Amino acid sequence: MNHNLEIQKILLKVDASSRPEDKINLLKQAIHIADANNDKEWGVDLRLDLIRAEINTPNQTEGFPAFVWILDAYDNDPDLLDEDDFLWQYKWMVEYSIRNPLILPEQVDHILEDYRNRLKRNGYTDHSYYNLLVYRHVFHGRLEEAGEALSKRDETERDGMSDCIPCELGAAVELALLSNQFDEAIVKGHDLITFKSWCSEQPFCAFCDYSYYLEKAGDTRAKDFFEKAEAELSKLDKDKTSHLAQMGQLIDYLNKYDKEKAWKYFEKCAHWDLDASDAESFDFIRYMLPLF
User: Fold this and answer.
1) What DSSP assignment string belongs to 25-67?
2) Is pTM beyond 0.85 here?
């Protein structure tokens, strides 16, 4: 059978699948066929599809090497595709590298600088680069540096590589909460709280952050945000498993106020942790410890 036809048949199955994990397995089959036939164009397109599918899970086991393949293919043959076509996926891979303990800090430095250079080469500002610095500093607990990067981000013009406004608001909210600036966090998140600004990730993630950090501080406003988070949870794609950490935050809250419900939530998402990245798994386990 012609390999193009084989791949197209697999893609029909991908389109008919709702679970990201099923899509990933099918796309891996298609990639194998493309590579066996030395079809670089299919190899690029299918790997980009795989990365998009895996972003809806708590792992990037397949996506990271797939992206490395794309990057190498482009650098060896720039006529194969436009560099701009994979910069968004590059941003996702930078985030993954920041949280991957197997990637050394100096390697992350190199990845960030390479990403920044490619942004400039394609006419973009440093806005998304600074947003990644916020993410990196927060992950390592460097809150002052995160605040400086956040200021630079907000001073830099937004462009086509910028995260959506709700997600950028969510980053500012998280930093304020981590800094115990709870009133400021609520002010910063006004448009999320009032649903003037929303996306597929927000305000659910922000509501989980609010409920978790406010409850830890003994702030009674945590209850309201927990209820908001639960309401948003019911609207999320049930096949999407990337919100493992947020589920952990909700379970941590419930452990104090409704242990039976906490266990029900645990049963709902515990299996997501089986294939999660080390960082995602660590966060989930950290939230789970009080439950046991």
Assistant:
1) HHHHHHHHHHHHTT-HHHHHHHHHHHHHHHTTTT--TTHHHHH
2) yes
